[in-house]
């Protein structure tokens, strides 16, 4: 629905047909993957020799970083489409991606210092990857703050969308910062295997799959809520215009 279209008052699950089936299926898949991955992490995967139990943070830190990428890329791409088409559906997806991405960014920036304290002896180091991740988080905090300041008008929406698009190159810098600037942050997963023990692979990939399902579920759910909010706001504006015309 575009801005010029009449608002829809229907409130249904994600949709009928395939979408109606995918919604509960995604819930079930996410719960199952989370349960299996937690079992693998804490009862099957071996503990790392030097870091001990603290190494288990890895199974949450890295998948959270991946989920953060998914959220922020979703926000940036959807914002770009919104700027091109002015379609409120893409705006709702952008809001969902930014907010969900920020939630996982917070997990990354929380679990990272816990790892760093054990590995480096400090809670925070201005490592290239850490610094660029913080920068990306600040960009999307600005997006969410701008969108959350009352009923955002078209100017605010376009400005926020521009911020989300500008945040995309920062994500590329985050990904390649370790290879380019050789910071302290380890590169655990590489083409040659890196420093991850093969016995840890099942737990890691299950955790990655679980977080992938979770981020998809959260973005879908948040986009639905934002879409309903947009419809309610459109109806309120329409009712206010009708009252004004009747008053005249």
Summarize the structure.
With 248 residues, the protein is mainly α.
Radius of gyration: 21 Å
Distance from N terminus to C terminus (CA atoms, Å) equals 30 Å
Count of individual helical segments: 7
Helix content: over 70%
Strand content: under 5%
Tally of individual domains: 1
Mean pLDDT across the residues is 84
Class from helix and strand fractions: mainly alpha
Largest sheet: none
**Count of extended strands:** 0
String of helices and strands: HHHHHHH
Low-confidence segments, ≥5 residues, pLDDT <50?
1-15
**What is the approximate shape?**
elongated
Overview of the molecule:
- The model is unreliable at 1-15 (pLDDT under 50).
- It is elongated, with a radius of gyration of 21 Å.
- α4 (128-147) runs antiparallel to α5 (154-166).
- The relative contact order is 0.16.
- It has helices spanning 17-44, 58-85, 88-119, 128-147, 154-166, 168-181, 201-247.
- By secondary structure, the chain is mainly alpha-helical.
- It starts with 16 loop residues before the first helix and ends with a helix.
- The chain has 7 helices and no strands.
- It has one domain (30-40, 53-183, 198-247).
């Amino acid at each position: 629905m575009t801005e010029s279209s009449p608002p829809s008052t229907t409130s249904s699950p994600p949709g009928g047909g395939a979408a109606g089936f995918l919604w509960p299926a995604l819930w079930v898949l996410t719960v199952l993957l989370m349960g299996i991955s937690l079992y693998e992490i804490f009862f099957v995967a071996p503990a790392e020799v030097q870091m001990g139990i603290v190494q288990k943070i890895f199974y949450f830190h890295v998948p959270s970083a991946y989920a953060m990428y998914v959220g922020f890329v979703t926000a940036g791409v959807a914002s770009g489409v919104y700027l091109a088409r002015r379609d409120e559906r893409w705006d709702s997806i952008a809001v969902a991606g930014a907010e969900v991405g920020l939630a996982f960014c917070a997990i990354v920036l929380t679990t990272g210092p816990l790892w760093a304290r054990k590995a480096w002896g400090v809670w925070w180091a201005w490592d290239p990857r850490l610094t660029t991740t913080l920068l990306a988080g600040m960009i999307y905090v600005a997006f969410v703050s701008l969108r959350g300041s009352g009923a955002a008008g078209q100017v605010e929406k376009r400005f926020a969308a521009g911020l989300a698009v500008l945040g995309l190159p920062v994500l590329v810098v985050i990904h390649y910062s370790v290879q380019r600037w050789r910071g302290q942050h380890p590169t655990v997963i590489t083409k040659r295997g890196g420093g991850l023990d093969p016995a840890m692979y099942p737990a890691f990939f299950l955790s990655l799959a679980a977080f992938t399902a979770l981020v998809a579920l959260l973005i879908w759910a948040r986009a639905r809520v934002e879409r309903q909010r947009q419809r309610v706001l459109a109806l309120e504006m329409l009712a206010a215009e009708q009252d004004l015309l009747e008053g005249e």
